[in-house]
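Annotated sample (chain length 355).
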Amino acid sequence: MKHNFGAGPGILPHEVLKQAAAGVVDFNGTGLSILEISHRAPEFEAVLNEAVKLVKELFEVPEGYSVLFLQGGASMQFAMAPYNLLPDGGKAAYVESGVWANKALKEAKYFGEVEVIATSKESNFTYIPKDFTIPADAAYFHITSNNTIYGTQMHAFPKSPVPMVCDMSSDIFSRKVNVADFGLIYAGAQKNMGPAGVTLVIVKDDILGKTGRKIPAMLNYQTQIEGGSMYNTPPVFAIYVSMLTLNWLKSKGGVEAIERENKAKSAVLYEEIERNPLFKPVCATEDRSDMNVTFVVNNPEHEKPFLKLCDEKGIVGIKGHRSVGGFRASIYNALPITSVYVLIDTMREFAEKNK
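Output written by the structure step:
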């Protein structure tokens, strides 16, 4: 058995994989594969409608917001958000809390002025910046809720005088969020929601259409809303698997239930990292992520032997990003706590062998 701690594309529920595999052969008794049916067929329209309904239900999306399933990943949203929200001559405010936040603000500079109101770059992003003032004259305020590479997470969101835009790619549906606090939420599906290839967008309708610029159809949120996420051929399979995953989440008791599981998983793993003399955490305690747990060895010579032991135990995807080094355990929704205990047991065994 493999224990998948990979950062993304991440682990999917086993029952979802079985359902998706069956759909590849024969989708809902149609005699056709989900990979070959028309996206205009009523069978797929039902899938898309169900996916939208589940997003609204699980995230308690209020009236006045649209739910979209788009392509291009969060990286496309780095440009699409300012294209739709930042007027010529306007200003956007960004918090720089990691590599992806940095890439997002770089894209925004193509459309207007970008003010970086806080950064943790000087510490290699080991904490979430907190002491900042959001300028009231900004068109919007952009944050990244969870920093996959560095293992930090924004556990409380600021109140913003302007529309708040959030990249939730690596912690979407992992915890309760008040959608009404945000103007725009976007997330690549491949951590907690489904496979790579589709991006979820939740946008407040009344913040759109105010830039005064002409926007190409594919990059225009209003066009995508009018087309019901089907202005062009959507990523049919990725939406289907996302719908199955959202149904799985609902069956487990929804976001509130999975949040309890996620906090239990991260708590026992951080406890072991603190207790074990061979390892140490990377990030500021109050900002440690419940999704991506980063840690290093006290003795660099232990890194390769520990990775070798993990491989022998069926633990995959544990190697840390090159920006941080060490190890990164991504404990997304579908990862069972039993896999976390396998990792903990492996850490303890390694410590016993290297006293």
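Annotation: The longest strand covers residues 113-119.
Annotation: Residues 254-275 form the longest helix (22 residues).
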